[in-house]
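Justification of resources, computational component.

The compute hours requested in this renewal are based largely on the per-chain cost of generating structure records like the one below. Each record pairs the submitted sequence with a full structure-token output. That output is archived, and it is also reused by downstream analysis tasks.
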Amino acid sequence: MSLYTGRVRSYLIKNHIAYREEPHATDHFHEVVLPKAGGRRGIPTVEFPDGRVIRDGVAILDYFESLNGNLHSPETPRQNVVSRLLDVIAAEGMLRPCMHYRWNHDQDNRDFLQFHFETIYKDQPNPSKVAEERMQSIRDNVNPAWGVVPQTHALIETTHVSLLEKLNTHFAQYPYLLGSKPCIGDFGLMAPLYGHLGRDPKPLALMQKHAVRAFRWVERMNRPEPDFGEFDIEEAVFLDGDEVPDSLVDVLRQFAIDFVPETRAACDAINSWLMDNPCIESETQAERFLTMCSFDVEGVEISTIAQPFRFFLLARVQNIYETLNEVQREEVFALLRRCNMDVLLQTKLSRDLKFSNNLEVWV
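The structure output for this chain reads:
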């Protein structure tokens, strides 16, 4: 049910890595795992047999990719940039539809969510009561903080259905984003498109109605085999010639509608916060919920949390771009301009971030 756990679970399944999944509300988690995870109750968190702990799906995939010969990281510049950019968008750009479709459709979702939240708190004296309180807190506090308010519901729904239709067009032609094997961007998109949008009853029904091929991709991403039997494909590879298909460009254009203005607004808000707080010491934790920002999408004003984590991930895309030669940069820039996302290459915080001791910290 966890949004970000979908990314890691899919990676472990696809790479035949054995694991056992446990709830995060146990005494063991709080007493043994949490202190090693920087004290942050974020999930997914992996505990290894030797007691080591890695918190956060991005860091977990980094670790396993380093052992895996970077199997899911394209080597060619355009595909590599697109894969990493989709990972940023998946982590930070789809929170509104995830929260709206989970928490604003009680008629469809309530019994489903109640059951699963009770399993999280199964060791509590009254798991039903704890689950109800936790769910109500999310509705009352988290949804508005992420811009999920009545004034934005219609925009969230129209843009999400448009995205589903574009994803459906793409996955009708290709089993994965960049060919016949999953890239980092595929695993990233499993975060929003499985736990929330491809499993909760209301958004699952939407996906099955408007995007059956995208639904097949969700199934495919949770299976250890390539699972592309409906395609005339024999080998699991990325597309030749650093190709980024037009159908994927259309997906990125759809994402750009709100991701780009939100990213620019969040960048301005966080940079303003940094100017007002110049004495933040290096190695200080960069809080996920730092400040607020506002931006306009198709005439609708959205107010939401500006999270530094977006820029921790976006810096990876920018760093890849900066290591390219001049010809490669021109090709990547031209591609991102077609996607209405070229501005993201220069949208940067005034202070860098890094991952240290299982936390994002200021450099």
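The mean pLDDT is 96. Residues 8 and 57 are 6 Å apart (CA to CA).
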